[in-house]
Write a structure and sequence with these properties.
With about 350 residues, the protein is of the alpha/beta class. It is about 40% helix and about 15% strand. The chain has 12 helices and 12 strands. A 6-stranded parallel sheet has the order 9-8-10-11-7-12, with helices on both faces. α10 packs across α11. The chain is globular, with a radius of gyration of 23 Å.
């Protein structure tokens, strides 16, 4: 790597050794480079496998790390997904290994070690895309009880299920138990036809969706039949002791205080429990207190319980979702100030 600088501008020149990876690294019509330029406020000029990055010194450093991280991912045989650029930009330099940082400041041909936390499932390897996601995923592995609280689209449930699948595949859990309260989101659906499974499946569909991204459909079917994976309404948890399991309570903002206490006391030996929820989307009847909000107040500071608090910056769905959430947050803040 060559570094040029003056009082007005800062430049880095990076050369990557494998020309075959340049098309995937740069994207169609250099679309990946354009995205990096737009997001970090730098200019990138490419000649073959030589990249000249110019702009503010810190921005140049970040753009360099992004390019090298993406190159490292391609070099290891992994494909770049649409969200990988955003994910890498969001990860600050301290979340990369020290030898990666050292290389950024030193050598010409660099093969950095990407320390992004990987969750390996049967269908894909999943990388957390924000700092909060990374800390959340680590707490799911290291802790017995974790709360993931924040707006929609931040990956709370998806990452929890991915970690549960990964633990099962590596022998860290004997079963995966997924549950959520069967509360309608502002609509009255009436009585649903069919047997018990057919009645509750519409409420559980988001959990099936996450599972299908981690495991082949045939394997999910077999695991459901063998009760290695259990998906059931929260009411079905009463009276059980959940041992040797990875347990996820989704949409916890729609639990009552009694339901939350009941669920928390189901935790058995060698189990991990995850509670996810979005306090801004409570669908309980007016006047009913959310068990999630009460649990956060009551359990704050209790040893061994981890809280991961997400915000709009952690949204990893379409960029429009981030804008929508921020608009609602700003509107609600202005209303509180006026009142």
């Amino acid at each position: 790597m060559v570094i040029l600088s003056n009082s007005k501008n800062f430049q880095r020149i990076i050369e990557f050794p494998d020309n075959r990876l340049m098309i995937d690294l740069c994207g169609q019509l250099d679309s990946n480079l354009s995205k990096i330029e737009h997001e970090i406020s730098v200019q990138i000029h490419r000649r073959g496998n030589l990249f000249e990055i110019s702009g503010d010194q810190d921005d140049c450093g970040l753009a360099t790390m992004v390019l090298q991280s993406l190159y490292s991912q391609l070099e290891s045989g992994k494909c770049l997904e649409p969200g990988d650029i955003d994910a890498t930009i969001r990860m600050p330099s301290e979340f990369f290994e020290s030898d990666f940082r050292k290389n950024v400041n030193g050598n010409n041909h660099i093969k950095p070690s990407n320390s992004l936390f990987e969750i390996v499932t049967r269908k894909k390897t999943i990388l957390p895309r924000t700092v909060t996601q990374k800390l959340y995923a680590k707490s799911l592995l290291d802790g017995d009880l974790t709360f993931g609280v924040g707006p929609a689209g931040t990956g709370k449930t998806y990452l929890a299920i991915a970690v549960g699948v990964s633990l099962y595949l590596t022998g860290g859990a004997d079963k995966i138990i997924l549950t959520r309260p069967a509360v309608e989101a502002g609509e009255r659906l009436g009585f649903l036809p069919g047997d018990m499974k057919e009645k509750v499946d519409p409420y559980m569909q988001p959990l099936y969706d996450a599972l299908q991204d981690c495991l082949p459909g045939q394997q999910i079917t077999k695991m459901l039949e063998a009760k290695i994976i259990e998906i059931a309404p929260l009411a079905f948890m009463r009276g059980r002791t959940l041992s040797n399991a990875f347990v996820v309570l989704d949409e916890a903002q729609n639990t009552t205080e009694m339901q939350m206490k009941m669920f928390l006391t189901r935790l058995g030996e060698n189990s991990r429990m995850v509670i996810t929820g979005d306090p801004s989307q409570i669908d309980l009847p007016r006047g009913t207190k959310s068990g999630l909000l009460s649990a956060i107040k009551i359990l704050k500071g209790v040893k061994g319980i981890n809280f991961s608090l997400f915000n709009s910056d952690d949204v990893v769905r379409h960029q429009m979702v981030t804008r929508i959430i921020k608009a609602y947050e700003a509107f609600e803040k202005s209303e509180r100030e006026e009142s």
